[in-house]
Amino acid sequence: MAAALMHNPRMLVFDEPLSGLDVLSARLFRDLLNELAAAGKAVLYISHVLEIVEQLCGRVIVIAEGKILADAPPSELTTLMQLPTLEKVFSHLVRQQDTRSAARELVDVMRMA
């Protein structure tokens, strides 16, 4: 990270950057991202942890099967789709709403074995 920031880049790309970090390091990283964005840096943050995306990102692009399904601020997506969280918006957009049934089916298959 230090090596990347040393050259004062205009854009930074992070792919799942919080993976494996302890709580304090993750908090420091989130604060750093906010400071970088406030300093005018473009930050591309790629993550499947939608709660963090909802907190950090000013704009979210949902991509599934190579197609852009949504491109808007997180609060706008939840408002437009009348859903309480970005996770529910994502599930609706990619048509994977009934994860509980899928989990039950997996457990049923395990019981048969």
Layout: helices, strands, pairs:
Blueprint: H1 2-6, E1 11-15, H2 23-38, E2 42-46, H3 50-56, E3 60-64, E4 67-72, H4 74-81, H5 86-93, H6 99-112
Radius of gyration, taken over Cα atoms and rounded to an integer in Å: 17 Å
Uncertain ranges: none
Strand arrangement across the biggest beta sheet: 1-2
Between the first and last Cα atoms, what is the distance in angstroms? 47 Å
Largest beta-sheet characterization: 2 strands, parallel
| Number of beta strands | 4
How much of the sequence is in beta strands? Answer: 15-25%
Summarize the structure.
With 113 residues, this protein is an alpha+beta fold.
Summarize this structure as a short list of keywords or feature phrases.
2 domains, two-stranded antiparallel ribbon, alpha+beta, two-stranded parallel ribbon, 113 residues, 4 strands, single chain, globular
Describe this structure in words.
This protein is globular. The protein has two domains: 1-46, no CATH class; 58-113, no CATH class. The chain contains six helices and four strands. The chain has helices at 2-6, 23-38, 50-56, 74-81, 86-93, 99-112; strands at 11-15, 42-46, 60-64, 67-72. The protein is an alpha+beta fold. 51% of the residues lie in helices and 19% in strands. A hairpin with a 2-residue loop joins β3 and β4. The strands form two sheets. Strands 1-2 form a two-stranded parallel sheet. Strands 3-4 form a two-stranded antiparallel ribbon. The protein starts with a helix and ends with a helix. The relative contact order is 0.10. The mean pLDDT is 88.
